[in-house]
Amino acid sequence: MDFTAIDTKIRELENCLENTIPVRPDEQLYVGVDLGTAYIVVVVLNSEKQPVACEMEFAQVIKDGLVVDYMGATRIVRKLAGKLKERLGRELTHAAIAVPPGTGDKDCRTHSYVVEGGGLEVTGVLDEPTAANAVLGLENGVIVDIGGGTTGLSVLENGKVTYVADEATGGTHVSLVLAGNHRISFIEAEELKKQAGRHDEILPIVRPVVQKMGSIVKKHIEGRNISAVHLVGGTCCLKNMEQVMEKEIGKPVYKPANPFLVTPLGIALNCGV
Fold first, then answer.
1. Which of 65, 101, 198, 232 has the fewest CB atoms within 10 Å, measured from its CB?
2. DSSP states of 50-69
3. Does the reported pTM lie above 0.85?
4. 150: left (phi over 0), alpha (psi -120 to 50) or beta
């Protein structure tokens, strides 16, 4: 796996959080909407599938991969799409979305209704680790997407997904442990864990949660021919958590420089029109 190329793609997308790349009036655009437990992210790619704009907002409208505030989620998607329209001078019409592995048809439809309520026609629904693999390009191994609410994984063999699983342990649980340990609010804990300079202090406190994530992965890949584990998702931004998981799983664990934006970019790459 070429992590240098992957990190370059993600840096290009990071740049688009503040900067807008011009697009032609008639140019085909590809849009991905990531309805996360902690953040809703909308990514726009140009006709060559290069990032041109990105918007995100902290939100607590999704819990464990399921929509718990339909109106709130719809309002945020509409707001972010509107901001992107202003930035690009273009209407956004279509989008792909992703859900945790194993999400039922009813909940998949709810995710679609949220995005369609925000003004975008949903042209594709895929599971989050599979979306991430559009960026990683993994042929064999396991992709683990750890978001705010869940730890989801996809096992790939010869580039094909052969097994998926998802369990409710993620960044929300990390924040709850931090909040209890420091006697601060959940929102304050969310802000604390984003302070990279304090990650050496944070990791020992939340180690049991990270070990739980590792045990989830270990359980689901046991007996399978897995050579390495690849991490994506916002929770994986926690410095050195991959070392804790590697010890728990007993296999090499890798992650890109910024795991947070891998899945949103992969969703956009899967946008059909």
1. 198
2. -EEEEEEEE---EETTEES-
3. yes
4. beta
**Which domain does 214 fall in, by range?**
138-254
Q: Please give the tally of structural domains in the chain.
A: 2
Residue 145 sits in the same domain as residue 199: yes
The closest of 76, 10, 87, 9 to 38, measured between CA atoms, is 76
- pLDDT truncated to tens, each residue of the chain (273 aa)? 677 889 999 999 999 999 999 999 999 999 999 998 888 999 999 999 999 999 999 888 887 678 888 999 999 999 999 999 999 999 999 999 998 888 888 889 999 999 999 999 999 999 888 899 999 999 999 999 998 888 989 999 888 888 988 898 999 999 999 999 999 999 999 999 989 999 999 999 999 999 999 999 999 999 998 989 999 998 999 999 999 999 999 999 999 989 999 999 999 999 986
Looking up residue 110, the CATH number of its domain turns out to be 3.30.420.40
On whether both 22 and 121 belong to a single domain, the answer is yes
Co-location of 231 and 152 in the same domain: yes
